[in-house]
Amino acid sequence: MRRQLGRVVGGLLLALLIVSVGLNVYLYRLTDRYYRQLNTVRLDPLGMDSFPAQPEMAPLAQPIVLFYGDSRAQQWPAPSDLPQFTFINRGIGSQTSAQVALRFEAHVTPIQPDVLVVQVCVNDLKTIPLFPENRETIVDTCKANIDKIVADAQAVGAVVVLTTIFPVGEPPLQRRPVWSSEIAAAINTVNQHIRSLDVPVLDAYHLLADERGLLNPAYSVDELHLNPAGYALLNTELRRLLLTIRDE
Fold this sequence. Notes:
Layout: H1 2-43, E1 64-69, H2 71-74, E2 86-91, H3 97-102, H4 104-107, E3 115-119, H5 122-125, H6 135-155, E4 159-163, H7 182-196, E5 201-202, H8 204-208, H9 228-247
Parallel strand pairs: 1-2, 1-3, 3-4, 4-5
């Protein structure tokens, strides 16, 4: 009996040790990733090194469509059924609307796009649970940076297609201590501003949200990002907008 009990206790201790080691490895990797990300931003705050400062752009007969913004723009695949357009991507993961707005002259102006597709602000708004006292400032800054991007794009002759901010999904366990319903509420506020502007709007929020107002799991890989099905859905609407813009 004692021998059996000892085996059970030993097995439990071994299991706890394995779980502890696995958890520590996971936490180390998570910490390392955030530390590297933090210091990468400190070395290159706007992500200027992500793309050539002066890309060599040969004259193109086809209209240029430029995806611009954060990781959601970065991961956006060009529609495969629009060979009459040239698609270029200048999205950078983890960027705030301020970073996106401030790098416009370096990453958009030299390309002289005909159409600029913009997805920004979730990286601003997801910080609200960390700085609840700054909620209104964060929201107002998003609106101001969107307005600046629109004005800068129009100044270089581009048609701006603003996408509403994608809905967010259920956060994983490790993110819940720094998450709150205020993020979704702020997204709705900024999206109202986007819809009020006199530019074409691709209402990604409406397309991707489920009946609870969360990112539909059928279109997501995590609480923030889309799977191929999600982007295919957006590209169906983008295709319609681009053909309308071209024919105007």
